[in-house]
Amino acid sequence: MKILDWYILKRYLFTFIMMLLLFIPIGITVNLAEKIGKIIDKEVPFNEVVAFYLDFTVYFAHLLFPLFLFLSVIWFTSKLANNTEIVAFLSSGVSFYRFLRPYMYGATITAVFALLLGMFLAPKASEGYNEFDYKYFKKKSAVDNKNVFRQVNDNDFIYVSRFDSGKKEGKNFALEHFEGNKLVTKITANSIKFVKEDTTYRLMQYVRRDIGEFEDNLKIETKKDTLFSFKVEDLTPVIYAAETKTYDELLDFIEKEEKHGSANIGRYKLVLYRKWSLPVSIFILTIIAVAVSAMKRRGGMGVNLALGICIAMVFVFFDKIFGVMAQQSDFPPVIAVWFPNFIFGILAIYLLFNAKR
What we know:
10 helices; single chain; elongated
C-alpha cells in the first residue's frame, strides 16, 4: 500500500471504532435508565444484568453497524475536506477513484467482520438479550401464541388454541395422525404442559380415538404423561428464534419450519438474507459517505453530517417499511431486504459520478 492508502485506512478504522466506543455506552446508559426500576423491583441478580449488557453491546453494535460506519466516514472525510487535504491529494494527480481505493479496503475489512458477526457472534448475543428481555421485562401476553396449527412430521398434525411459551403450556390440544390420506388416530386434551424434569408432556382430560374400519377404539384418562416425537420448541418457536441461530442452524431451521407450514417464514427469511445484505450495504454507504463529504462546503462539517443523517434516516425507513411488509404479507423477503441496497446503490453511483467531476 501507498502512504495515502495507509493514512486513509487508519483514519477509516480508527474513527469507526471510536464511533462504536462513543455510542455503545450511550445506548447502554439509556437502556439502563429505562429499565433500572424493573431490575430493582424484580431483584434481578447482578451477574445476569452484567451478562445482559454484554449481549446488549454486541446486539446493539450489530443492529446499527452500517449507520455507525456511515457517520464515521462522513465525519473524518469532512475533516479531510475542511483541511483541504483532499484537494491536495487530487491536485497531485491522484484520481478520485484512486482516492476511493483505501475506503474500499476499509469497507472490505469491516464487511468481513460484519459477516462473521452476523453469522456467529450476534446470534448468541441476540439469544441472551432476548431471553433476559422476555424473562424480566415483557408481559406474558407477548409470548403467547394463539390458534397454532403445525405439521410436525410427514404424518402428524397438531393444534393448540393458545400456547404460553414461558410456562410451556397450551390449551385445547389436538394431534391427528394420518397414514396416507386416512386419519388413523386422534388425540385431544383440554391442556398440554411440557414437564422439563421428565422431558414428557402432561395432558389433562386426555382422549385418544383409534379409528378402525368398522368401529373406533376410545381411551379416556383424566391425566396422562406421555412422549411425543416433536420438541416443545417445534410447537411454537418464539418470534426471535431465527435471530438466535448461526447461519447453518438458520438454514436447517427455515427448512424445518417450511415443512411445518409456519406462518413466520417471511420473518425468518428476512434474518437469513440480512446476513448477506449487511456487508453489501457497508460498501454502498461508504461510497455515498465519501461522495457526500469529499467536497468542502460552506458551513463545514455540520452540513455534511446533517446531509448524512438525512440519508441514513431514509435508508432506515426503507429497510424497516419493507421488512414489515415481508413479515405481515406475502411480499417476498428477498426483495424486502435487497431493495434498499438496490435503490441506494443507484444513488451511490450517481453521487460518485458527480463527485469525481
